[in-house]
Amino acid sequence: MPGGDAPQLRYRLATPADIPRIPPLIEASVRGLGPQAYSPSQIEQALGTWLGLDTQLVLDGTYFVAEAPDSALAACGGWSRRKTPFGSDHRPGRDDALLDPRTGAAKIRAFFVHPAWARHGIGSRILDLCEQAARAEGFSRAEMGATLTGLPFYRRHGYVEFERIDLPLANGEVLPIVWMARAL
Ligand SMILES: CC(C)(COP(=O)(O)OP(=O)(O)OC[C@H]1O[C@@H](n2cnc3c(N)ncnc32)[C@H](O)[C@@H]1OP(=O)(O)O)[C@@H](O)C(=O)NCCC(=O)NCCS
Which of 119, 131, 151 to probe ligand 1 with, by most ligand atoms within 8 A of CB? Predict the structure, then answer.
């Protein structure tokens, strides 16, 4: 599956120049694919807080994009050597402290595929790049707070769910996500 059936895409690390281009991709992904598991109000409330860009990942060199031949972004996703487990720049309770790879699990972060490119193996290819990079830094475990939309994708890649968390939204609703992990 890694490599997928979209060979024309270029996979590369995101750069600061990509930062303004990533939020529109995330919004298109969540609005297009999120309704598989969430209501329209959950989606709109979660965008920009729980679901969005964490600029730190770009600055750390741990965030990837898949770029089409016309330079449009088809997907983004990354990993982190820091403690913040999920969420955008604007989530409450960030913790940018570094993890110890000997004891901590690398965080798989913020995977968003444009709906036009879904189910072409692109998320799988980016996940593979993230797992390789985390392994190269000495991590032997990876974990994430997966959206319900991402659940079957991560299960397919060997992640096992062990806790459901309800993230609070500003209007009093919650966004259910699932804590998942696997050995690298
Ligand atoms: C989750 C997501 C990143 C998957 O990206 P993708 O590029 O479409 O995934 P892939 O094509 O690599 O899928 C690999 C396999 O995962 C499973 N899978 C992926 N999406 C699935 C879905 N919606 N339903 C069931 N299985 C799915 C399938 O087994 C798939 O293989 P197949 O297409 O041969 O059946 C994408 O759906 C997405 O961006 N969702 C919206 C944003 C989101 O919730 N992101 C997760 C944040 S934690």
Answer: 119
What spacing in Å lies between the alpha carbon of 177 and ligand 1's midpoint?
15
Q: What is the pLDDT of residues 73-85, one digit of tens each?
A: 999 999 999 999 9
- What is d(CA 173, CA 170) in angstroms, rounded to the nearest whole number? 7
- Indicate yes or no: pTM above 0.85: yes
The CA 37 to ligand 1 mean position distance, Å, reads 13
Is there a contact between 16 and 56 (Cβ–Cβ < 8 Å)?
no
Q: What pairs with residue 66 in β-bridges?
A: 11, 75
118 lines ligand 1 (CB under 6 A): yes
Domains plus CATH for the chain?
10-140 (3.40.630.30)
